[in-house]
Write a structure and sequence with these properties.
This protein has 197 residues and is of the alpha+beta class. The chain is 25% helix and 34% strand.
Length: 197
């Protein structure tokens, strides 16, 4: 009887590192999925829904100039690395330090990150509301911006949190029809409704 074929998504469960990810990801059967790992445990998520994808690009256009004027670099998803077995792919990432090497360009050190922006996904609500903010807080990321869009309900909200004594505390929050206005980590002003297609 032949041995079962090696399947990295199964056989490396709990063992994932950035080196193994470089070797085995993306999985040919799931090329456009998002791959994140926490303590060696891999999490695979489908590509974002259109509403979130549209909102991410719209938010980037609304805040990019202010971020750059304040000396930050705004990018889309990156592999934000906390340690060899832990990385996430934020929807938008604000860096205060650019990667210096090819390795850092692929696995951006979390110490270079000023703010993680996450758009809530229906399939990952617990991760977006609990797991990712907790990981970013423990990793020392100074700011966390969470956006939630529900197109069919015309719902849009944005909440900015600042790291204080190891925990995220709310700074600014607004829903559709209100003005979200923040001065840190750089000036931002928009109506969350603008993020809906």
């Amino acid at each position: 009887m032949a041995a079962p074929a090696f399947d990295p998504l199964v056989d490396l469960d709990g063992l994932w590192t950035t080196a193994l990810a470089d070797r085995f990801l993306p999985d040919p059967q799931l090329p456009s999925a998002s791959y994140e790992s926490v303590n060696g445990r891999l999490f695979v998520s489908p590509t974002e829904v259109h509403t979130n994808s549209w909102g991410e690009l719209k938010l980037a256009r609304l805040v990019a100039d202010a971020a750059e004027s304040a000396g930050f670099s705004l990018s889309g998803p990156v592999n934000l690395k906390f340690d060899e077995g832990t990385w996430i792919q934020p929807d938008l990432t604000v860096l205060h330090t650019l990667p210096k090497t090819d390795e850092e360009d692929r696995w951006v050190p979390s110490a270079y990150c000023t703010m993680v922006v996450e758009f809530v996904s229906r399939s990952n609500r617990r991760k977006d509301f609990v797991a990712t903010p907790d990981l970013c807080a423990k990793g020392g990321v100074p700011y966390f911006l969470r956006v939630e869009l529900v197109r069919r309900l015309s719902h849009a909200s944005a909440q900015l949190f600042r790291l204080t004594d190891g925990r995220y505390e709310p700074v600014v929050e607004a829903t559709a029809g209100q003005v979200f206005e923040a001065v840190e980590p750089f000036p931002m002003r928009f109506d969350p409704r603008q993020l809906l297609p």
